[in-house]
């Protein structure tokens, strides 16, 4: 549709559907009109794709994830449909600001951070590469909490994102599945075969809500299927009047419906909550039941061939119950024998590991697990038994460590072991991360199954993170190297030709200034703070966690401030330090760090004596939409995790793609960024992973002696309780103890000096205008490698055995 047609269509929709006119409509009504026009248009293409899939029955991948951090969908749908430009024009003609209309959409915040956003980027890439691939997740009523800062502290508000109807979803009650919890297992014999039945279970309905995932510049629309727990309408759901009272019955029904109520806000901290295990089984069972049913309908084959048509990728261990649940369906429902079912299962399931932090490894206490899922527990025990037998007989060299490898051990079910044993592929998310898995974390499993292990370095969709978030940079790129890069992001490398081109550098600078002014305006609106758009925009945006070391950043800022107090005329460029970070509600230390950042901001932003050389901005409620505004305006990208701790990172890629220079450690995918751009185009600092390992091994690190011997550190750390923060004197004692008494788990003090040096390099380099631009262009040019299209191509060919479709050239 062209501009005029869109305009007419908006007016018609307002009148017919919303009973209003263009002159009276609110922004929200315009948003509803526009998005329903888009949705209607997608629906017919969606049907076509589904029809094609039905007829051709291609190999399909299902991406199982407890989190999909989708953000807003209107603008990305418009972009992928090639409607973005005409729609923006239509809205402008009608007297509206397109960005204000897009902002009426609530973020779908169904994820915590990196893992959930990765899943969203993967959906975009699968559809854009025309890979038959669908997402299966949970339709949480409440997404990740909304963060407010009140009196310097984080407070959490519920994110009731479904308050208004969600335009993008279609409820599919016809595909409802029934999920059973609890009960008891009875075995009996039938025709000489052992049969199992599960009795007296509590049942809940799983109702899917489908969201279309539109590919860029093609006709493919895949599906994100989100499951919602709802009351069962069958007789089973009614009160039978026997064992329980009516009210107890209602109560237990209610508790089952709470399964899809909210997303757990903990990222990287395993908490053995029964409800979370319920959520995991709920997702896995509804998804698998549907897949098996559809497979039989479409192919007419027995499930013995399931793995020839289907792969299931599990996003971390959260959905690893797919292994015993698929075994259950194949044996108890489809009549396969153990060996047949095991063959199918272990050729269907593939597992991605996203973390090596030990506190994040999922383990469930046996009593909880077996009570909630008695049949699944039986099968898991059998998997464990057979696996241990196999190791004992076939790998005598591992006999002494069987208890370390077992799926069930020390009264716990270890989900990572279940996932490794039950899948045909295990992948890490960056080269370094996969090497650590093979070398240490999963060393023994790697010894047993070397062929299963592989790397798939993460990626991000360049459509959302460059084309959509940064249209000005996109136009600049188009005008110099053409538009092929949109379909072949590696073509961005052609920009290298312009790295020293004065006119290109000037234009890049202007684009950055434009985006910085835009962000400065937003900051002023939200916080009242006026920031200098000529200062260096230095950002650290990610979940708050000890290992990500926001503490290192803010301690450095305090240190810089103390220096400026002593040297008010020092010739260093002004810097704006921008933070965005949510802390898990129960993570005390992380919340203290937020308080420290906000208190430091309070103190430093209001001290006129340093001539506005430092501003600190803590932006509340960091989420996908805020990231889309911050990233294009960023110049320094802080990726400063303790080496060996960040599995990959994906914010590092988004920032690099938008021309920010990385201040980072050799960790996660920073290593691969370095491989591409070279260390001369980044600011690297800090210990390497091997040095840290060495310190751990020898116990050769004492934060206290460093503190005692280093004057600067001493002075700075003392500020934590020496009156710098006035009323907050006692507030930061936990951070103080964390650093000194608990020996600085993440080596903040150890890396401090090297960090300061890297920061000084940044100040110097920024003053060499041409050099900075050149470095920035070099980073953008190499960022094509980090498109999730590359990642998905690798999953498709190396894990899923699905041939990606070669896209046709862009429509003009
Ligand atoms: C059980 C609680 C829990 C919840 C979430 C444990 C672990 C997680 C995730 C694995 C945490 C996560 O998001 N990991 C991040 O995954 C990104 C995508 O692969 C990586 O880029 C990040 O480095 C990694 O921290």
UniProtKB/TrEMBL annotation:
It is found in: Cytoplasm. GO terms for cellular component: cytoplasm. Keywords: Allosteric enzyme, Carbohydrate metabolism, Cytoplasm, Glycosyltransferase, Pyridoxal phosphate, Transferase. It catalyses: [(1->4)-alpha-D-glucosyl](n) + phosphate = [(1->4)-alpha-D-glucosyl](n-1) + alpha-D-glucose 1-phosphate. InterPro entries: Glycg_phsphrylas (IPR011833), Glyco_trans_35 (IPR000811), Pyridoxal_P_attach_site (IPR035090). Its cofactor is pyridoxal 5'-phosphate. Its EC number is 2.4.1.1. GO terms for molecular function: glycogen phosphorylase activity; pyridoxal phosphate binding. SUPFAM superfamilies: UDP-Glycosyltransferase/glycogen phosphorylase. Gene3D superfamilies: Glycogen Phosphorylase B (3.40.50.2000). Pfam families: Phosphorylase. It comes from the Bacteria. GO terms for biological process: glycogen catabolic process. The modification N6-(pyridoxal phosphate)lysine is found at residue 654. Phosphorylase is an important allosteric enzyme in carbohydrate metabolism. Enzymes from different sources differ in their regulatory mechanisms and in their natural substrates. However, all known phosphorylases share catalytic and structural properties. Allosteric enzyme that catalyzes the rate-limiting step in glycogen catabolism, the phosphorolytic cleavage of glycogen to produce glucose-1-phosphate, and plays a central role in maintaining cellular and organismal glucose homeostasis. Belongs to the glycogen phosphorylase family. This is Alpha-1,4 glucan phosphorylase. It comes from Sinobaca qinghaiensis. The lineage of its organism: Bacteria, Bacillati, Bacillota, Bacilli, Bacillales.
């Amino acid at each position: 549709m062209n501009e005029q047609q869109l305009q007419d269509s908006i007016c018609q929709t307002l009148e017919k559907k919303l009973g209003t006119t263009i002159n009276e409509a609110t922004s929200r009504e315009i948003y509803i009109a526009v998005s329903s026009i888009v949705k209607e248009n997608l629906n017919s293409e969606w049907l076509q794709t589904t029809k094609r899939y039905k007829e051709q029955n291609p190999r399909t991948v299902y991406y199982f994830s407890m989190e999909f951090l989708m953000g807003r969908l209107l603008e990305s749908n418009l972009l992928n449909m090639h409607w973005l430009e005409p729609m923006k024009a239509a809205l402008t003609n009608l007297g509206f600001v397109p960005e204000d209309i897009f902002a009426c959409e609530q973020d779908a915040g169904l994820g915590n951070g990196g893992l959930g956003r990765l899943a969203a980027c993967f959906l975009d890439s699968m559809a854009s590469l025309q890979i038959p691939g669908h997402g299966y997740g949970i339709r949480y009523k409440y997404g990740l909490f909304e963060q407010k800062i009140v009196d310097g502290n984080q407070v959490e508000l519920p994110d009731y994102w479904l308050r208004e109807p969600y335009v993008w979803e279609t409820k599919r009650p016809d595909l409802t599945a029934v999920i059973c919890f609890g009960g008891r297992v009875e075995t009996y014999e039938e025709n000489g075969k052992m049969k199992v039945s599960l009795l007296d279970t509590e049942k809940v309905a799983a109702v899917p809500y489908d969201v279309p995932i539109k590919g860029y510049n093609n006709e493919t629309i895949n599906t994100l299927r989100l499951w919602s727990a709802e009351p069962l309408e069958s007789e089973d759901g009614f009160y039978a009047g026997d064992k329980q009272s009516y009210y107890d019955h209602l109560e237990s029904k209610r508790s089952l419906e709470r399964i899809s109520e909210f997303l757990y806000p903990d990222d990287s901290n395993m908490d053995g909550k029964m409800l979370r295990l319920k959520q995991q089984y709920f997702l896995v069972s509804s998804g698998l039941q549907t897949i098996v049913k559809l497979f039989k309908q479409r192919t007419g084959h027995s499930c013995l061939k399931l793995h020839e048509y289907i792969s299931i990728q599990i996003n971390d261990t959260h959905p690893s119950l797919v292994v015993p649940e698929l075994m259950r369906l194949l044996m108890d429902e489809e009549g396969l024998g153990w060996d047949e079912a095991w063959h199918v299962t272990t050729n269907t399931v593939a597992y991605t590991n996203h973390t090596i932090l030990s506190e994040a490894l999922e383990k469930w206490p046996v009593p909880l697990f077996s009570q909630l899922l008695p049949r699944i527990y039986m099968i898991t025990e059998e998997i464990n038994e057979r696996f241990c037998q196999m190791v004992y007989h076939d790998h005598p060299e591992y006999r002494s460590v069987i208890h370390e490898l077992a799926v069930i051990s020390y009264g716990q079910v270890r989900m990572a072991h279940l996932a490794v044993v039950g899948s045909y592929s295990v992948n890490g998310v960056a080269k370094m991360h996969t090497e650590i898995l093979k070398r240490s974390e999963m060393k023994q499993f790697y010894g047993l199954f070397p062929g299963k292990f592989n790397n798939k370095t993460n990626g991000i969709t360049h459509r959302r993170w460059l084309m959509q978030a940064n249209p000005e940079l996109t136009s600049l790129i188009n005008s110099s190297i053409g538009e092929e890069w949109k379909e072949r992001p590696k073509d961005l490398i052609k920009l290298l030709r312009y790295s020293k081109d004065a006119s290109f550098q000037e234009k890049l600078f202007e684009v950055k200034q434009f985006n910085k002014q835009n962000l400065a305006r937003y900051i002023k609106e939200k916080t009242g703070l006026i920031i200098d758009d000529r200062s260096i925009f230095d950002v650290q945006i990610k979940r708050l966690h000890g290992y990500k070391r926001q503490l290192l950043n803010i301690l450095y800022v305090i240190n810089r401030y103390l220096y400026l107090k002593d040297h008010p005329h020092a010739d260093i460029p002004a810097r704006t330090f921008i933070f965005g970070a949510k802390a898990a509600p129960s993570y005390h230390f992380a919340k203290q760090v937020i308080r420290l950042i906000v208190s430091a901001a309070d103190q430093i932003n209001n001290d006129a004596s340093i001539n506005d050389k430092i501003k600190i901005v803590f932006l509340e409620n960091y989420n996908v939409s805020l990231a889309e505004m911050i990233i294009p305006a960023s110049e320094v990208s802080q990726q400063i995790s303790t080496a060996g701790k960040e599995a990959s990172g994906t914010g590092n890629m988004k920032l690099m793609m938008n021309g920010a220079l990385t201040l980072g450690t050799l960790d996660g995918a920073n290593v691969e960024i370095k491989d591409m751009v070279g260390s001369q185009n980044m600011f690297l600092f800090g210990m390497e992973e091997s040095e840290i390992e060495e310190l751990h091994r020898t116990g050769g690190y004492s934060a206290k002696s460093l503190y005692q011997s280093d004057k600067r550190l001493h002075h700075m750390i003392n500020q934590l309780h020496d009156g710098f923060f006035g009323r907050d004197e006692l507030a930061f004692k936990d951070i103080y103890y964390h650093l000194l008494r608990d020996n600085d788990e993440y080596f903040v003090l150890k890396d401090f000096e090297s960090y300061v040096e890297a920061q000084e390099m940044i100040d110097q380099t920024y003053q060499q205008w041409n050099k900075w631009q050149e470095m920035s262009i070099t980073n953008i040019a190499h960022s094509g490698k980090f498109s999730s299209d590359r990642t998905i191509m690798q999953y498709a060919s190396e894990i899923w055995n699905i041939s990606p479709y070669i896209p046709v050239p862009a429509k003009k």
